[in-house]
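Lab notebook: predicted structure, single chain.

Context: the supervisor wants predicted structures on file for every construct in the current expression panel, including those that have not yet been purified. This is the next one on the list. No modifications to the sequence; it matches the entry in the shared construct table.
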Amino acid sequence: MEVKKVRKDLLAPEHEKVIEFSGSHPSRLLGAIPGILKDTLKISGSKVYEVEICWDVSGDPVSFSGEWYAKYGLDDRTAIWFKVVVRGNQSAKDLKGSATVTLSGWIESKVVYPSGLKKFVEFYELIFYSSQRRKYIEEGRILIKRIEDAIKKELGL
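Prediction complete. Output recorded below exactly as produced.
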């Protein structure tokens, strides 16, 4: 059996959305992002993956960053992946600072080609499943917009 992965960017041609914030306590996003992803996508915590949380407290302002992935399953072969990256700094004295949030997403399908049926599966993918994938991409765009709105609400924008 041969397995092929098909990956399509949700936000093409831009690839990512960027939110800029300056104000009070921007590092609160590091604690808020996992909850925003779980609540917005209505997924369990096991589908949210924290890649890194970093703090540099060697000087003032304190810099911080975080990266998360979330998996939103659609069917047996397709899932939407969301990536959120937060980078910023804030003063240790008055907690004023700035942060940049980057949102991106992609749809990933795994196609299994059973022995001898590769041409049939390719035909099915081309004729039937590609239209379903387009609907999933549109659903992913809507979900990224909801995540963006939830982050802006958290920041008071």
